[in-house]
Amino acid sequence: LEARAALARREARLARQRQALEASASTTVRLGESALLMRLAVEATGIGIWDYDPVADHLDCDAAARRLLGIGAAQPASLARSFLRTIHADDRARAAADLRASLDPAGDGRFGGDYRLARDGGAARWVAICGRPVLAGGRANRIVGSVRDVTARKAAALASEAVRERYRLIARATSDAIRDWDLVADAVTWNEALQTAYGWDPAGAAATGAWWLAQVHPADRDRVEAALVAAIRGGGDAWSLEYRFLRADARHAEVLDRGYVIRAPEGTPLRMVGAMLDLTERNRVAADFRAIFEGANVGIVQIDPHTLEALSVNAKLCAIWGAPAAAIVGRSVARWTPPEDATERDALHRRLAAGEVMRETLEKRYRRADGRIIWGRVNLVSQALGDRLQITAMIEDITLERTTEARHRALIALGDALRDASGRSEAIAAAAAILGATLGAMRAGYGDVDVAAGLFRVESAWTAPGIRQAKTLSPGPLPP
User: Fold this and answer.
1) Residue 40: is it exposed, middle or buried by C-beta count within 10 angstroms (0-12/13-18/19+)?
2) CATH 3.30.450.20 for the 175-283 domain, yes or no
3) What is 297-397's CATH topology?
4) What would be the CATH architecture of the domain defined by 47-154?
5) Which of 110, 359, 434, 448 has its CA 20 to 30 A from that of 43?
6) What is the pTM of this model?
């Protein structure tokens, strides 16, 4: 019986051992399968695995790691001879320092970074290397990690940084306050001009769209917000608006805001970049000019050099030409010159149309809207403004001055003629010629009036050049 019991115990022990061996074999198979699956997954991602023994200075790399680092399949690998030698000279010291820091017991044990690889010619390649130490007795006796190619990611990051750097340089170079509004996160970034132009510290200003809108003048805010919402929700990509913006000193600046909406491919608005141009000083100068323009005691007209159309006129010019602004603006100024002066007028206009820069003073005649001929002294200024020519004519009505001068000359001429005349008929003929020329008449003369008979008789008559002379000077009745 005892022998039979001992045999049973032995068989039971053997059975347990067989079960343990089978379980171990099954676990080994499962572990092997898991390792295989892990290796296949890692290979599919293009990630290389490495294992470094700092004591023996031995580096064990799988095929992907060797390929990424440029280590031959049969080449013995070590930290100094293989790993660090593959790193670009400019990154090598940093990589070595990072590795030493990971072995420091006082550190967090992490090793990693982006490093350039040494290549003979061609574009630089970047790899991301990371590792964690395996501790034994409180010390790292191995570092296990991975390596992967991040050249494309790094190139994109560098390109993005270059764009951001260009943006920063442009933002610093301009006096416009530039606003970059992330519509998704409602985060606004301002450039330095927010402070230089408006007194707000970009770092201290609330970085939200609400803060920006809060600085818009209350009378303009609803209009600005409505235009902003329409631009963001609409399909366009640009908007422009003038409004008043609060400065840090509590004064309002008049600004021109031009913004651009950046959208995702499907049209979702992502960002809005805008620039605020301070128009305060420009508008003040324009208002001062407008006050001078409208209040000037001389007529002022601005002219298009190509079409000769009046672009703007002041009230004094309307009074000189006897016409409202609506009858002058948008029409050629040539129509106000009498036809008999067309030759001189057209010669001047050809010079203006050719882009000649001039500053001249001349006297010329104009025909008013009521048909009356007047004289004007014209200060004509044409100047280049960028790629265009601006023409301004300042006109003073000198009709009375010209008439007074003409009468004075006529009196002197009449005195000389009367002094030199040999008789009554010659004196009358000279007086008629002087009177007719001075008044700009077609005919002039002196006659005798018989009041009792109600008749007059022209003794001597003068006819202007080009006017047909009357055949007879018969007596006629007095006009009523």
Assistant:
1) exposed
2) yes
3) Beta-Lactamase (3.30.450)
4) 2-Layer Sandwich (3.30)
5) 110
6) 0.47
